[in-house]
Amino acid sequence: MNIEKTPILTKGKAFEIAEKFGTPCYVYSQEALVQQAKKALEFPNAFGITVRYAMKAASNKNILALFDRLGLHIDASSAFEVKRAIMAGIDPTHISLSSQQLPDNLEEIIKSGVKYNACSLRQLEAFGRLFPNSEVGVRINPGLGSGGTNRTNVGGPASSFGIWFEYIPQIKQTAQKYGLKIIRIHTHIGSGSDPLVWQKVAKMSLDTVAQFEDVRILNMGGGYKVARMSDEKSTDLQKIGAPVADLIADFAKKTGRKLAFEIEPGTFLVANCAAVLARVQDVCDTGDGGYEFVKLDTGMTEILRPSIYGAQHPISIIQKTPCDEVKSYIVSGHCCESGDILTPAPSDPEGLSPRPMAKATIGDLCVIGGAGAYCSSMSTVNYNSYPAAPEVMLMPDGSTALMRRRQTLEQIVQNETDI
Ligand SMILES: Cc1ncc(COP(=O)(O)O)c(C=O)c1O
């Protein structure tokens, strides 16, 4: 496995960064982030496109500010994310909130200019009470979903996300009661969705739009697949987007309504733009018929996806002293937790899948790729009292910039009180 081939880190850079910032550490490539943003902004559309970055994927303010400079808007998943984006300098009118939880401070948020997608009938009712005779979006569960794993499928009867499509009469009733105009239909059906299912849902969403005469925006969420491993396939945005742009153009011909289109990618924008840089801190085995383990100084505290989804991430050992020997390892995290495994069987977090890689020796570095999305923002941070790892941006000129310091033990315990 040749690290020189990975787009994020060369061997030399990996040692330089480990020396300067320590391990474990997240390393993002600004060049790769810019490249992905540009691709997303070229998403086919008939009457205009807004690309909202699903900031839950990686929430560091420097990433938000970079995407903001490039013209992306924000998809926030909680009132806290809204505030975090505003603190990062994002114009509130560029933020849209689609949240599982009804925020206590909804009134303040909406008054600041943030757009709202009601994600349940209760949320729509609460919005109507606060802002009668105004405009709002609704998130619909179209009855069909698709995800890279069952857990990341958020459409269909097994998902609580959005308002079930059969409840459109109740949406209309609530809208009428408060004089609300439904101006945006939002559907996000899962992460790592099958492109064909996504296109089918686009058609279904237009049928929903047809039932609301004031709708002028269709937001199809995110979920575009990204190949982290060489045997996975990325979704081609041009390919899936073009037929949907045609559908929207047809809809305009039939109805005279030119819908603005929105997408909310998270994974697509950041997944392959970062790696976790770690160090091999032990190597052991369980005898004949057992396994060989590489133990790292990272794990579910920085990268949880393998443990909960059986997600696959590319893993490369960067040897201090090069040798050609390849070995098959289970790569294990540093937590005192049996689920802290970085090489589970695909989509089966309980299964083990030994992976061939360069022979590991204590002190070698290890690069876990595809770690830009749902890693630094979604981990068991502070489990076993490990401090949150630093985040480093690799700049286009090869220099590095620290964009989050390593947490200290004092910061972990700072909110504890004496009783
Ligand atoms: C409403 C909404 N939009 C966008 C996204 C981003 O999805 P992805 O990172 O798969 O593109 C999500 C992910 O959960 C979501 O719930």
Observed structural traits:
12 helices, nine-stranded mixed beta sheet, binds pyridoxal-5'-phosphate, eight-stranded parallel β-barrel, TIM Barrel, disordered N terminus, globular, 419 residues, single chain, alpha/beta, Lyase, Ornithine Decarboxylase, Chain A, domain 1
**Unique ligands:** pyridoxal-5'-phosphate
Distance between the termini: 53 Å
How many structural domains are formed by the residues? 2
> Low-confidence spans: pLDDT under 50, at least 5 residues?
1-5
Supply the helix-strand structural class.
alpha/beta
Question: CATH superfamily assignment of the largest domain?
Answer: Alanine racemase
What does the largest sheet look like? 9 strands, mixed
Percent helix:
25-40%
Please tell me the CATH architecture of the largest domain by its name.
Alpha-Beta Barrel
What's the total number of strands? 20
Question: Overall pLDDT, averaged?
Answer: 94
**Beta-strand residue fraction:** 15-25%
Rg (C-alpha, Å): 23 Å
CATH class of the largest domain: Alpha Beta
CATH topology of the largest domain: TIM Barrel
Q: What is the global morphology? A: globular
Put simply, the count of helices is: 12
How does this model look, in words?
By secondary structure, this protein is α/β, with parallel strands linked by helices. The protein is built from twelve helices and 20 strands. The chain folds into two domains: 162 residues, Lyase, Ornithine Decarboxylase, Chain A, domain 1 (Beta Barrel); 241 residues, Alanine racemase (TIM Barrel, Alpha-Beta Barrel). Helix 8 packs parallel to helix 9. The termini are far apart. Bound molecules: pyridoxal-5'-phosphate. The site of pyridoxal-5'-phosphate has 16 residues, from helix 10.
